[in-house]
Design goal:
- This protein has a domain of 184 residues: MetI-like (MetI-like fold).
- Helices cover 78% and strands 0% of the residues.
- The chain contains 14 helices and no strands.
């Protein structure tokens, strides 16, 4: 296992370094000038130039990146160019909201994805199989923000089952917090769960064609035991890897979902930072999201290697 980790770590480090470069360049390529935003529309060119010097924006891009990366490596996330507050404080103020949404959506994604995948892979034909395939296809084709709007229309307005928007911490008021969390978490989770379900279904179909499954059938092993002990056991690696990959897409979708459901999380903060050209905040939010996605993917690979020794040998 240690050898497997040693082989994977260099690629992870390279990916994070490349991401830091992209996160640093993206807000600058978007155009605009934070110095002009700070100075105001009526500021003179001399005032804007003085602010650029004060913020270090007059230096070459590579020098700015080197200083930012060096500060990052010692734990200094920088200071917001617009509010002059430490970026770490701004993130901690919004982190709880995003964590609640991400955890709830991940749990729903795993439970619904694996459940739908096993169900679809177990039903070989008939109306039930056709109905499940149709439902999964619809969920796959519907982006999270459209799913969120449909949930608001159906669960929030038509049947008035859940509150449409707002936010209360689950730790402070579990009942109200969970009721406000269900719809945004579902909106994020359903498209990703459909993808996991489709992958598990396809993998179960492949495993069903293997010779050891035919041997179990010939020996008279009960169908339920064949599905659970033979087919499903050899298909779960797909679910593990798919879950690790989908977490990154789930985090990306949280930006829009937070805006739709009026949740004051990191996604909404990132949108505000982009519009105000607050480089420091945008860089840390983008880099943090990628770091989480990479670490979750690495964890899924470690889990898969633990389940399948062939992965470690390769």
């Amino acid at each position: 296992m240690f050898g497997f980790l040693a082989r994977r770590l260099p690629s992870v480090v390279f990916m994070l370094l490349a991401t830091s470069v992209i996160a640093f360049l993206l807000p600058r390529l978007a155009g605009g000038d934070p110095a002009q935003t700070i100075a105001g529309a009526d500021a003179t060119a001399e005032q804007v130039a003085a602010i650029r010097v004060e913020l270090g924006l007059d230096q070459p891009v590579y020098a700015q990146y080197g200083r930012w990366l060096g500060d990052l490596l010692v734990g200094d996330l920088g200071t917001s160019l617009i509010t002059s507050r430490p970026v770490g404080q701004l993130i901690m103020a919004r982190l709880g909201s995003t964590l609640e949404l991400a955890i709830a959506a991940t749990v729903l994604m795993v439970v619904l994805g694996i459940g739908l995948g096993i169900l679809a892979g177990s039903i070989r034909k008939g109306a039930g199989r056709a109905g499940l395939d149709g439902a999964v296809s619809v969920l796959l084709a519907t982006p999270p923000h459209v799913t969120g709007l449909i949930l608001i229309l159906v669960l929030g307005i038509t049947f008035n089952l859940l509150p449409i928007s707002g936010e209360v911490s689950v730790l402070r008021d579990p009942l109200v917090g969970i009721s406000l969390l269900i719809m945004p978490a579902l909106a994020l989770a359903l498209p990703q769960a459909a993808m996991i379900a489709r992958l598990i279904q396809a993998r179960m179909y492949q495993v069903r064609q293997e010779e050891f499954v035919d041997l179990a059938i010939a020996k008279g092993v009960p169908p339920r035991r064949i599905v659970l002990s033979h087919i499903l056991r050899n298909s779960m690696g797909t679910a593990v890897v798919a879950t690790g990959i989908r977490v990154g897409e789930l985090l990306a979708g949280a930006v829009v979902i937070e805006a739709i459901f009026a949740r004051n999380g990191l996604g909404l903060m990132a949108v505000d930072a982009v519009s105000s050209r607050d480089y420091q905040v945008v860089q840390i939010v983008v880099l943090g999201a990628v770091v989480i996605a990479v670490l979750v993917h690495l964890l899924s690979e470690i889990l898969l290697a633990a389940l399948d020794p062939r992965i470690r040998l390769q």
